[in-house]
Amino acid sequence: MQSSQFHLLAPLHNFIWIYQVVLII
């Protein structure tokens, strides 16, 4: 179950990080 949650959250975290970088630029 935990690995399934991580698999779901990892792309979301990356998306938020990229979104922040785009906002800074």
State the gist of this model:
This protein is an all-alpha fold. Helix content is 92%, strand content 0%.
N-to-C SSE series? Answer: H
Shape: rod-shaped
Strand content: under 5%
Let me know the largest β-sheet. none
The portion of residues assigned to helices is over 70%
Radius of gyration: 11 Å
Q: Compute the number of strand runs.
A: 0
Count the DSSP helices: 1
Distance between the termini: 37 Å
Mean of residue pLDDT? 83
Q: Which spans have pLDDT < 50 for at least 5 consecutive residues?
A: none
Query: Helix/strand-derived class?
Result: mainly alpha
Query: What is the multimeric organization of the chains shown?
Result: single chain
Question: Which SSEs are present, and which pair or pack?
Answer:
Layout: H1 2-24
How would you describe what is shown here?
By secondary structure, this protein is mostly helical. 92% of the residues lie in helices and 0% in strands.
Any descriptors?
rod-shaped; single chain; mainly alpha; 0% strand; 25 residues
